[in-house]
Design a protein that fits this description.
Elements lengths: L1 H13 L9 H6 L6 H20 L4 H27 L6 H16 L11 H18 L3 H27 L5 H15 L12 H5 L9
Helix pairs in contact: 3-7, 4-7, 6-7
Length: about 210
Amino acid sequence: METTIELRSNKSSRGQTTRMFDNNLLERFSRIHPVTPFVFWLPVVGAILYRSATRHDVHPVAMAGLSIAGMFAWTLAEYALHRWVFHWTNGTTLGKRIHFLLHGVHHDFPNDKDRLVMPLAASLPLSVFFYAVFFVTMGGVRIAEPFFAGFTLGYLLYDGTHYAIHHFRPRSRWGKLLRRHHMVHHYADHEGGFGVSTPLWDLVWRTMPSKKR
């Protein structure tokens, strides 16, 4: 009963939210202002592209192409993370707790404005992982860094799209399609609709969400 009262109180005071951690410091870092990823990552992207350009690693046209390829690669990473990591659970108490921390809290409180973009505590380790993968597989910084810059821009597009879908009513046809795609995932079909910035990979993997489910 106490938990129910607390959640109702939180919903009324913060829109729709709950605590994730008893520790106040951890709780603080589980929340993030929607502008923060852009303030942090855009200068990083700019610095990487500037460094690549001044080193003359690749032709400017090739650098632009690598960045676009990186943005496209993010859409696949977004789909894979959402489908196989964020929605993973093994049914145990620990598994359910991990799922709640990774993504379940968003499904329980989908309009919590402090948890609609990825906190830096999550995006920083992921960025190190992906940078290392690109560095190793692409033979060093020459190819990897422009690609990683585009990959990061794709991530920012995803974060911005996700926030907009939950807090604004789009007027464009594309915006309405994305919002409907994501809302069906939330409220009707958790086994489909894993793409947020694009439904492309749901079409490829045949996981388009269905209201019938």
